[in-house]
Amino acid sequence: MKYHSTFEPASPVEARPIDRERFRTSDDKDMLRAARDLTKDINEPSATVYWSDLLLSSSIGYAALTGAILVSSVPLAVTLGIVAALALYRALLFIHELSHIHRNALPGFRLAWNALVGIPLLTPSFMYEVVHTLHHARTRYGTKDDPEYLPLALMKPWSLPLFVFIALLAPVAFIVRFALLVPLGGVIPAIRRLTWQRFSALSINPEFRRRPPEGDLKKRVLWQEIGGAIWAWCLIGSVFAFGWKPLLVALAVFSLTAILNQLRTLVAHLWENEGEPMTVTAQYLDSVNIPPPGRIAEIWAPVGLRYHALHHLMPSMPYHSLPEAHRRIAAHLGAGSTFDGANHKGMVTLVTRIARSTMTRR
Hints:
By secondary structure, the protein is an all-alpha fold. The protein has helices at 29-37, 47-70, 74-92, 94-98, 109-118, 131-135, 159-165, 170-187, 189-199, 215-242, 245-266, 280-285, 297-300, 308-313, 322-333, 347-359.
């Protein structure tokens, strides 16, 4: 694919060790300039791509889930359950895009996503909106004020399996939140405040406390909370109408989806910051790209999240443009550049790296 830019490519940077410590205090301006200038023409979201991807993923997910509930063959049910988890996982991760795209960029997309995915999976978009942008704030990333950061590589060895295991409880926790805490919060202000501060954000930092919603978000929270509460009670009521099997199968599928997301989160960063503010370049190097030729990353890190480090350079870049953006910047800067320093081979390599780091913390 040819592209045009006012940026004049320089000679590729020769391979050299990357001085990560230097980039904690200063940015690689050549990389930041290249990221800006080489991608100006691919910065608009495609409505066709977004809508077709969401509708196809959610349709496959719910069809497979229905099959997993109805079939009598256990192997077939397990296979359909895995397909459902993967497809719904992809559909669910559009919540990340919703937190970045301009509210007028894709008319109706946020509403459709919440109706198709957010409320049925009890993770409406308000649980990520505003919260995620704090993670991208220049002075918050990697600090105690970052809701999506824990120095996992610097923690005890048992912290990693606990981090993954806790995702198993997420579907049941969401049902309790919406079916019990939301109605009680409607009449008891203290419960409403507690629920909002502690249980209304997809965060991993246990110290994070969410501030009250403001502006347009406040209106969206109201109808999403009501929709979630009604759906949670429908799930509970389904046991009396259809027995336990549909709900248990659905919970198993959603648990698998939650574990996939937690594993992806585990390798989205290197988690090596001890709480100090970082430059944009340092944040980039603490984040992870899993570029081709490997293809399996597109399964466990879909919707552009295999380019998570690049996303931290260009948060507003639509997910479907990230592969081309990565190709352009990598070709311009060359092997061994700072840009190359965030590229990794895959999940196993990254988990091993983080696990080895925790072993030194016994």
